[in-house]
Amino acid sequence: MRLCSPLWLRYFAWSIILTTKNLWKLSSQDLFKKGTRVWHRHPELVWIPGELEHDITFSTRTVRIRLEDGQVEVTNADQLPFLRNPAILVGKDDLTALSYLHEPAVLHNLQVRFIEREVIYTYCGIVLVAINPYADCSHLYGEDVIQVYRGVGKQVRELDPHIYAVAEEAFFDLAEFHKCQSIIVSGESGAGKTVSAKFVMKYFASVAGHRDGSAGVENRVLATNPIMEAIGNAKTIRNDNSSRFGKFIQINFDEKFTISGAELKTYLLEKSRLVFQAPQERNYHIFYQLCAARDHPLLRDLTLGPSDVYWYTAQGGDSRIPGVDDREDFMETLKALELLGFGSEKQKSVFRILKGILLLGNIEFKEDGDNCTISVRKLSLALLQISQLCADYKIDEAQLRLWLTVREIRAAGESVRKGLQPREAVRSRDALAKLIYAQLFSWFVHHFNEALTEKERRISRNKSFIGVLDIYGFETFDVNSFEQFCINYANEKLQQHFNQHVFKLEQEEYEREELSWVRIDFHDNQPAIDLIEGRPGLIEYLNEQCKVVNGSDLEWLNQVTTSASLKKNAHLQIPRVRCTKFIVKHFAADVPYTVEGFLEKNKDAVTIFVDYNYKFSFYVPSKQTVKKTVASQFRDSLRDLMAVLCTTRPHYVRCIKPNDLKERFHFEPKRAIQQLRACGVLETVRISAAGFPTRWTYEEFSRRYRVLYPEGKAMWRDKPRIFAEKACHKWLEEGKFALGKTKIFFRTGQVALLERVRVETLSVSATVIQSCWRRFSARRKYLVLRKSLLTIQAATRAFLAVRRLLYLQMHRAAIVIQSSYRSAIVIQKYWRGYLARREKIEFRRKVVLVQCCVRRWLAKRRLRELKIESRSVVHLQKLNTGLENKIIDLQMKLDVMVSDDLTAFYYTSRLARLTLCCPSSREFALEIERLETECDVKEAQKGELETRIHELSSRLDQVNWKQDYTSGCQQVNILCIISHLFRTKWSERCAVVERDRDLMREQLLQNANILASSHFSRSSVQPFCSYSGRQPFSLMGPDGNSVSLSGGSGDLEEIALILRQQQMINDLRMRAEQHQRENERLRNLVEASSLVDSLEKKTSLRSFESYKLQELETAHARMKLELERLVEEKINGGLENMNVKLHEESAELRAMLSTRFERQSAMASGSPRPDSGHWSAGHSDDGSSDLDEDLCKERQCRQLKALAE
């Protein structure tokens, strides 16, 4: 059982104590603050959630509630809104576990479990609430689910709520406490009462059936279900399988608590359904089953037709039910009849009677003067149908025609027959059909009881049983007649029993036991019951009116309204406007009843006719002289039922119908709350959470739970009250139990806790006993094994000792024998060692000799290879490869230095020319400005070139070193093209410098000619003269041909001209050699790019380019500095200093030329003379090359000196 929530106890106590307005306001400040989650009443959804917009204080007159959709509702502060439970409590499987127990909390909790979790069962204290899902939930009722709940006992409340849990609890209480139990299943039509009752019986048949596997009485009990559904259930607008009668199944158990039999009692069969069905409704299922299986061998002789040809089965229209096969249901009905002992002949008789009822419904009456005559709907079948009806019932056709159209009135020993009008004849016909069907229904019930109880007749009457009550729920329609009056009367009685069990008996018990308990007011419906069954009462006046000859419904209503005692009853209301209705205030709702038909339905109009004229095999006439009315019979049967229920411990199952459209897992709050109010679930919540639903006598408690307090020893027998108090204080919390005078009371869930502790204690005790016994058995077995083992070990040790002795003797003898041969073995050992060492030494010497010969041969062969290789050109080329690379690097550096010197010389000569040419300082200043502009332009061009070089180097750095050979070659080609463009632009810039340098060189050579002529005249005047006399002087021309000169007076000028031409040729050759070297360098660079996969060569190329860029930047900076220095000297020193420097430079050049010619003259003494025929272009080229080199070196020295200054 679930524990009660402490929050609920506080809230419940607060709602009871705060009865005055002042106290209510005082406590409301602590509960109703701004933002508190509350419930607000809604016309369609009943209750919707919201939050308070402000605090509720003493002065609050209106309450503002903000709903979830953002709307704000204003209500009166006289009635506070209900509080909402925390989110953690929503969806609990027991409503008593909620902190706030009220109507919206119960409704919301059921809706969440049903819609969101698709759970159909919920506990409400001692009541199980079952909501009809209108879906296939067969997986919830299988045999495996039965095994889950089987044998759990009181701890079943710890499992999920289920109909099997209620059945298990009832069966456990029957077996443990030997008290009869009852399960009351109630609810309105379509709520699932019949299905719930079927599952209860299925559970009992499974857990209490015969264990030997034979077909016991439990199978016969289950077999009654399909038969009772066939003859007592019908389709209504609200339910496809609605039970139109109430039943109480009493399942009997023997001393071993196995099913030994059953008894079936029925209440108030709806006979009016036999003759009338509303649209979209059906008659009882059995008629449609007969028509659907009319070709069955048992039914072929009956010649039945389809259901739409009979008036009693065609009134509702379409008779089909989705998902139902009437033929298959008929086969199940036949199997059940056979299992219950109905033979084929008896089955045919039953089916013949049912067919006769259908034929009876097709009889019509037509007016014939003051009387009426019989006619049939289909004239062609008239004679056949009436004859079949009379043959089936074994009655005279003439008598049937007579008594269906007349009635007999007896008075003072005389009888008078009076003809009936067609309307009266139809009512008489329908009454006869209802009587026949009712008697057939009772006959079935009687035979069922015989089949289920025949084995119990020898058993004592003090038997245990569990009763299952499946009865109609509270009903209210637009038009409520006699049937609804009886149904609601039965529900009033059941509600009174529920009230007595849950409310009245609870509080009376608490008062008797002198418990501290706050009395709770509840709705007592005894006044409503007195209104119906009291004297005087509605039933009493109805019976009196039935005895009056000319009694009518209006006379009965008039008698009720004029009764002084009934007027005082607050549960009866008479409309102010005179009409045929009266209102009864039932416990669930106020129901208006229409009095039309009450008298006719209450009295059996054809009872006298049947008693005196026709004797059916299934009809047993009453021995009473005066027949009881239907209302009296129903009242007496209800009293008997209440008497039986009062001797049992009840278990309640409340079935709820969630919607009227039979939609799957669809919940309509308005329909659900009506049923919750009608079945008393809300009151159950309140009393179950606040009361003590479980109680024990001290003797029973101490006898069952004596294992819970072993410290008391015999206290449980001598002082049970003290034992109960100490045991409860040990295991339960304070306030969860109460001690009365003769009983101890427990709140919900406490007995389950004690049961669990008891089972655990017994399990531990059993484990201890088992462990002690196992220890004793194991020790005894161990001692036997130990004794046997010691004996075996002693024998084994003796055997091993003897065997060891024999082994030692044999070992000693072997040692003595071997000692005599030990000397010979030692000698053999040393001799074998000597032979092995000698053989090894000889083998090693031979191996060394062979190795020496092989190494000598290999050394000679290697020497020959080295000699051949040293004389080969390829070897020399490999050795010179490194030197050539170094020479190329030095040559490139020298070219850079030469280009820098040429650039500086260009600017120097340009400045000198400007100095000589400019006549005035103003023109000189203009020239300086122009030069500065050119420098800026050159710097800008240089910056552009640097930017392009930087971009290209960046792209080159981004190149992936792992690319293939083709991509590397492409990058190198691009680099070569860019380098060629750079060289082209640089050559254009240097062209002007070279032209100026050539002019300056020509001037210097002209000056040097003078020295050269004097030198020639001093050193070799005689040879020259002598030589000139013999043959003319010859020189090599620019084209390489020999030019002859005579020794006339113009020889000196011609010689100077030839020298100038020769110098120009040398310059051109030098430039060609430079271009050749540059081409060779570029060719080497291209060849190196082919080896781009080598990381080392790529790195050197990049370093060379960066070095070349740095040299260009250095040259540019040096030129700029030189230009600034020249400009500054021009400004400071003027033209005089420049002339002086130029004269000094010219003198130095003359000295250098003279030195150079002297060196050539010295070299010419051991070689052919320059003027001889052996002078060649090679010598001239070498001489001019050496001269240029000396000039360049000297120029560099002067520049270094100038920079140092």
- CATH architecture verdict of the domain at 500-610: Up-down Bundle
> Can you tell me the CATH class of the domain at 500-610?
Mainly Alpha
Calculate the terminal CA-CA distance, rounded to whole Å.
116 Å
Query: Strand tally, please?
Result: 26
Keywords: Actin-binding, ATP-binding, Coiled coil, Motor protein, Myosin, Nucleotide-binding, Signal
Coiled coil: 921-948, 1058-1129
Region (Actin-binding): 638-660
GO cellular component, one term: membrane
What does this structure look like?
- The protein has 1205 residues and is of the alpha+beta class.
- Among the domains are: 54 residues; 111 residues, Methane Monooxygenase Hydroxylase, Chain G, domain 1.
- The chain is 61% helix and 11% strand.
- It contains 36 helices and 26 strands.
- The strands form 8 sheets. The chain has a 7-stranded mixed beta sheet, sandwiched between helices. A 5-stranded antiparallel beta sheet has the order 4-3-2-1-5. A 3-stranded antiparallel beta sheet has the order 18-19-20, covered by helices on one side.
- Helix 5 packs across helix 6, helix 9 packs across helix 11 and helix 16 packs parallel to helix 23.
- The longest helix is centred in the middle third of the chain and has 70 residues.
- The radius of gyration is 67 Å and the shape is elongated.
- The relative contact order is 0.06.
- The N terminus is likely disordered.
